[in-house]
Write a structure and sequence with these properties.
about 130 residues, mainly alpha, 5 helices, about 75% helix, globular
Length: about 130
Amino acid sequence: MTRDARDGARRRLSALAEDPTARWGPARSLEQDAALLGRLMMAAADHQQSGGQTVDVTPDDVGAALGLFEDMRHQLDRLESQVVIEARRRDMDWRQIAQHQGLNSSQAASQRYQRLMTRLEEIRQGVR
């Protein structure tokens, strides 16, 4: 997907009515974790640019940030699988889904979905 297409998708989704009391859990969790990672990176950059005049980011801070990624990947997998399910519910075929995912074929989109579902099931069963 091109940058323009991604920006268009963001604008389209931003236009959806938002109910602040009904934030969907996995998406909200991802949003919060991404914001925390952004704060860490900004603090690190500020410290470097100020010549050490601002709060330093410690190895424990960086370690805590690294610890967020596994859960974020799991949440992204859940979110992507649920969006694909919604696309199928709305009669989108695999070719259309592939196009929106930046994939070259309907087979690639279907296989990606199957891999997502396998990973999620392995996580659920404690295999991963």
